[in-house]
Design goal:
Pfam families: Epimerase. Strand 1, helix 1 and strand 2 form a beta-alpha-beta unit. The chain has one domain: NAD(P)-binding Rossmann-like Domain (Rossmann fold, 3-Layer(aba) Sandwich). The strands form three sheets. The chain has a seven-stranded parallel beta sheet with strand order 3-2-1-4-5-7-10, with helices on both faces. A two-stranded parallel ribbon has the order 6-11. Helices cover about 35% and strands about 15% of the residues. About 45% of the residues are buried. The protein is globular, with a radius of gyration of 19 Å. Helix 1 crosses helix 6 and helix 3 packs parallel to helix 4. By secondary structure, it is an alpha/beta fold. The protein has eight helices and eleven strands.
Length: about 300
C-alpha cells in the first residue's frame, strides 16, 4: 500500500514509519518540521511539511494514498492553553479524515490515547472502575486532550457510517523507547508506591509500531478501538497485591492473564489484530530501574 503517516517526526511516528517500510509499504510522511533540501539517503520516504489544521494542506497530503496513519497531535494537555490542544488535535483529525473519505482511502488508523476514559488529567479526580482497564470501560473525559481524542474516535464512527472506509483507533499506554525508559519507568520499578493513572502500564514504541502496521493492513470492517499496552507492568509487581495495597477496594480487580499483569488489557488487540508484543522494560533496565550496560565487546 501507499501509506501516509502524519506526525512522522515524533517518537511514535519515527518508529511507525520504519516499521511500515520494513513491512514493504510505500510511505509518505508529514509533520510540521521544515524539510531538508539536501540529497536524501537511499530509502528515505517522501516528506511533505503540512499544517493539518488547514484543510487545504490536509487534502494535499492525503490525495493518492491507500491508507492513513494519523499520529500528529499535541501529545498531552499541560503544555498549551486548553483551546489550543483541543482545536489542534480535533481539527487536524477532522481534516485528515474528511480528506480520506473524499478521496476513497481504504483504511484509516487513528492514534487515540489511554486517557480517553478520563482518569489521567481530570480536574476532579476519580479512579478506574475496574482493572485491568479494557475497551468496555466507561468514558468520562474532562481535559481538552482526552476530549479531543474521544470526539475523534466518534469521527471514525461517523466516517464508517457514511462511506466504505475502515477505521481503527489505537489507544497506546505510556510510550517508552530506549532513550526514556530509565527516567520514566525507573522510579516505578524501584518502588510500586510511585503511582500513575495507567496503573503501572506502559508500551514499547517498537511494539506499538508493530500494532500500527497490523492495523493498517487489517481488513476488519467498521471502526474498532484497541488498547495497546505491554502485558506486564513496570517493575513486574504482583498486580493484585499492589492494586489492593495502594487502592484498597476502590478499584475492582478482574481476572488477570498473569501475576505481573499490566493495568491496561490488550487482549482484544491480541485476539483481533494478531498483535504479539515482543519487548519489555526488562530489555532496557535492571531490577533497580537502571539502564542495562551494553556489552561493547571489549576485552576485560
Amino acid at each position: 500500500m501507499k501509506v501516509l503517516i502524519t506526525g512522522a517526526h515524533g517518537k511514535v511516528g519515527r518508529a511507525a514509519t520504519q516499521a511500515m517500510i520494513d513491512a514493504g509499504h510505500e510511505v509518505i510522511t508529514t509533520d510540521l518540521s521544515r524539510p531538508s533540501y539536501e540529497r536524501k539517503p537511499e530509502g528515505t520516504p517522501r516528506y511533505v511539511m503540512a499544517d493539518l489544521t488547514d484543510a487545504g494542506q490536509a487534502y494535499a497530503v492525503v490525495h493518492g494514498v491507500d491508507a492513513v496513519v494519523h499520529i500528529a497531535a499535541i501529545p498531552e494537555p499541560t503544555g498549551h492553553a486548553p483551546q489550543v490542544v483541543f482545536q489542534n488535535n480535533l481539527m487536524s483529525t477532522f481534516n485528515v479524515l474528511e480528506a480520506a473519505v473524499s478521496f476513497g482511502v481504504q483504511r484509516f488508523v487513528f492514534i487515540s490515547s489511554e486517557t480517553v476514559p478520563g482518569f489521567f488529567f481530570p480536574e476532579r479526580d476519580f479512579l478506574p472502575e475496574y482493572a485491568p482497564v479494557d475497551e468496555e470501560h466507561p468514558i468520562h473525559p474532562q481535559d481538552p486532550y482526552a476530549l479531543a481524542k474521544h470526539f475523534s474516535e466518534q469521527l471514525m464512527d461517523a466516517a464508517v457510517a457514511r462511506s466504505d472506509i475502515q477505521c481503527i483507533s489505537i489507544r497506546p499506554s505510556w510510550v517508552q523507547f530506549e532513550g526514556n525508559y530509565e527516567n520514566n519507568l525507573g522510579p516505578q520499578i524501584r518502588d510500586a508506591s510511585v503511582l500513575s493513572p495507567g496503573l503501572w502500564s506502559y508500551i514499547d514504541v517498537y511494539d506499538l509500531a508493530d500494532a500500527i502496521v497490523l492495523a493498517a493492513e487489517s481488513d476488519l470492517p467498521g471502526h474498532e478501538v484497541f488498547y495497546i499496552a505491554s502485558p506486564d507492568n513496570a517493575g513486574g509487581h504482583d498486580f493484585a497485591e499492589v492494586l489492593t495495597k495502594y487502592y484498597g477496594d476502590r478499584i475492582e480487580l478482574r481476572d488477570l492473564d498473569r501475576p505481573d499483569a499490566s493495568g491496561i488489557s490488550s487482549a482484544k488487540a491480541q485476539r483481533m489484530l494478531g498483535w504479539q508484543p515482543k519487548r519489555s522494560w526488562r530489555d532496557y533496565l535492571d531490577a533497580d530501574g537502571k539502564a542495562l550496560q551494553k556489552d561493547d565487546g571489549a576485552a576485560g
